[in-house]
Amino acid sequence: MTPEIDYLALAPEIVIVVTLLGALTLDLFLPRPQKYWIATLAVAGTALALIPLGILAINGETISMFDGSYVVDEFALVLKGLFLISAYIVFLMSVNFIESDRYYQGEYYFLLLASLLGSLVMASSRDLIILFIGLELVTGPLYLLAGWRKGDVKSNEASMKYFILGVLSTAILLYGMSLLFGLTGEVTFAGIAEATQGMSEPALTMAILFMIVGFGFKISAVPFHFWAPDTYEGAPTPITAYLSVNSKAAGFVAMLIVMYQALPGQSDVWAPALWLLAALSMTIGNLSALRQTNIVRLLAYSSIAQAGFMLVPFAAAAVAGADLESAFGATLIYLVIYAVMNLGAFAVVIAGARKTGTGEIDGWAGLGKVDPILGVLTATFFFSLAGIPPLAGWFAKFEMFRSVMIADPATISLAVIAAINAVIAFYYYAKVIKAVWLDDAVDTFTDEADQPPAGALRLALGVSVALTIAIGIYPSIAAFVRDAAQVLASGG
Amino acid sequence: MVVSQFLVLAAALFAMGVYGLLIRRNIVLILLSVELMLNAVNINLVAFESMIVTTEALGQVFAIFVITVAAAEVGVGLAIVLMIFRNRQSANVDELDLMRY
Fold this sequence. Notes:
The complex is a heterodimer of chains A (about 500) and B (about 100). With about 500 residues, chain A is an all-alpha fold. Chain A is built from 19 helices and 2 strands. In chain A, a hairpin with a 4-residue loop joins strand 1 and strand 2. The longest helix of chain A has about 35 residues, at about 325-355. The interface of A and B includes residues 129 and 229 of A.
């Protein structure tokens, strides 16, 4: 029996595999001063992978392979597009960052591409085994990338903390999966959904809770978030951006498709757990962010809180027993918009840290007067994260609040918690903008302060700012994401 | 075939792994504890497979994937341990306290 393989449907993955092998081979032969070609290759390969993705999107067919374990539908394509574009922006951010540190460039791009490949596989997985392989391929290279600066003890510590909690979460997740397999005898989501319909077993509840804890670590939801701020601070900044966007999105989507596709009949078990994760992540994330003085740690706690906001529509709809389809759409829209604006914020952090020579918010005082363009960009991304129109963040928050307008006590209380947190979040985002624009300059600027950021970084900033403003003014650009969620609902 | 004894064994191994992970201070012993947890998963999978018997031997296939990934992960982990040991001459996790809150 030979499995049917549709090579066009797998083309984005194949392009990335060829690129990552190419990066590794090229690294062997290039002399040290020419290593930047590897970065060019990685950027070009990621852009090239978008072409078959576009063709598949125009065809619009749902392609199912390996007995329905690997599905390429509109939903998977939207996610793959998100992963590819955000990886593209991260590569652009990395070019000068890695070059200026003179570390091993070939391995850096190889590992990052491997992680990207994992997220592409994850987006198509409709089976526990492929989902697990995809998720591990996302995180495995990142343990090493977090410790990229080998001589820096902070980077070492970041890597170790991430690794220990990462493998712990994998083990817990797998234990849950093994119980789920034992109870149903199935590994495909469709099979599990059928077998668990109406099943009421204590072991099933345990399996679901184990899996939620495992995923909770991956998406750094409170109370499983302790590794995140330390890892984010110690890792190289482009990797931090990747962790907070791609790796978080991969864990997030994995959790939601497992709950949505494999366990729709068990929502009375997982819905309260997700409700709790959402409420805690928003509140604790925001309150901890208030007292941060380092901008990367502030963004780390902010991303924990944003993950809480993302969970809100899905958790609320599940608790109230309402239509999960539109809630899933709202969560996905939030995820896409968050990816764009958070990448922009990290690009600003890289550019700003190079100018001011520090990651402390106080050291950024007066940046807006020295470099008005960077100042405006800082304001753009941080106001967008806070949800101020006409920047993209408002639409994400709007969709979130619109989807929780269900008359149910549990839903209303979650909406109230979200509303209070949106206000708290504004305070610390505004604190950064205040330092940049209103505070008097302190004399910490480096010699490079009057030079513009490097070309690749400028392109990264340009792409993210264009998307942030475009989605904010014409939200219908992002609304196609909602249709993709419906495809998952009907085609599943 | 009685499957429950294998499940109890797996649960005990898993619990020992969690306990070891929490109380051990040496990074290498923490890695060993994680291995215990992952092997508990393998026992579970293989025991369930022998109980259910799926046509594709899914449980055993899953277990082989878990073994492979676990090996890769330990490789990564030991690389990180070596890196830390070179910089600090110690493999004690309590000393990794540069960043807090």
